Amino acid sequence: MSKAQAVFVCQSCGMTHTKWAGQCSGCLSWNTLVQESFSAPPGSLKPETSPSKISRLSKLNFETLDAPDEAPQRMVTGIEEFDRVCGGGIVPGSAILLAGDPGVGKSTLLLQVTAHAALRGLKVAYISGEEAVEQVRGRASRMGVSKAPVDLAAETSLRTILDALKRDTYDLVIIDSIQTLWSDAIDAAQGSVSQVRACAGELVRLAKKNRIAMILVGHVTKEGQIAGPRVVEHMVDAVLSFEGERGYPFRILRGSKNRFGATDEIGVFEMGDGGLREVPNPSALFLGDNDERSSGSAVFAGIEGSRPVLVEIQALVAPSALGTPRRAVVGWDSGRLAMILAVLESRCGLGFGGKDVYLNVAGGLKINEPAADLAAAMALVSALLDQPLPKASVIFGEISLSGEVRGVSRMEARMKEALKLGFSNAIAPVAAQDNAPFEVKTYSHLVNAMSAFDLQC
Ligand code: TYD
Ligand code: MG
To answer: Which residues are the signal sequence here (predicted)?
Structure first.
């Protein structure tokens, strides 16, 4: 056996160092370097040495290639919310990383995906490094999919897994999770960056070579400490994250990298006793059942991926007992809240000084669009004045630092979704007037929008 070479690997970003240091020079995190050692990969894990075949793009004859020249063919799993986030189905031979906090429901989602895919005739294997086969079967029967022809294995040795996958021809393989695998070629602890990187590298290589779609599950911790998935992100074709707020049953699947589709799509699921249920119309979910909205509540007409989604934004303004008033925000950017408050104070003359301000996006959704500015501002003013907003209104529009209300993308689609859900008017930028399906109160400046409250600014 060749001599193992000691290296120090940052557990946060994966950078390798020859000497130990208190701080990683790559990502500047402290105390993340851990000694690991590489030894020469024995036996089957040796890199292949056959020369690469190089072809001229213009000379390639597409009819003779596996992949056609246009859109790649896709395997539809039947879980529509999942297929859409993947870009319309899983591309054969692609590698996908599904990342998420422990307990969010990654295993549940993938068991459901594999079961549905198997029932549609795909050959699938679910390899669990975390649960015994009986546990996976128990979960499948609770979810009512125990009859699906899925091949199950509880295995953590990379070598055994690779051998098994080479023996059979699978369309789709799930590895749950990449942190539990270990390769005997690497002298490092299970879950360490070196192990995760080596195992993911081998699996992705097999996926490409044998045209197996491979989904790797990766846990991320809040601190990003065991950041195995970070190093895997570069190796895979798509990175999906599964998110959910604690205490809410809703789970959101979001694409953050996708070589075969858009990255801004979301899939919405609801966790229940029988596993995850798809939510094809998320607007109804994020709005709640309350028809009569109280002060501080505004309905934002947003766009998530290709779909319009209506979300309730709630604000509370209360006198503060603290020297520095509290600003708390859930589901939105706190920097953006500070900006909106500053615009309301300096351009509209409204005083939030000495008051605690809370902003919450209902249903556990996270909004990233600047189009939510106007809705957040209206919710804040409504809470400050203790006056509800006009009934059955949706709000959207971006606010500039000067207080100008700007147009946003896909305004007609936003209003059409609102109309479908029983809303009859909108508070919006001037440009929304064109093709509006109902009455729209348009404003060019935030000061003018205050007239929605019968207020002199
Ligand atoms: P799991 O898929 O094991 O999470 P992960 O793989 O991301 O760690 O999901 C675990 C949670 O899901 C657990 O808290 C229980 C909940 N759950 C349900 O509420 N209903 C169900 O039918 C299942 C299978 C799980
Ligand atoms: Mg799991």
So the answer is: none
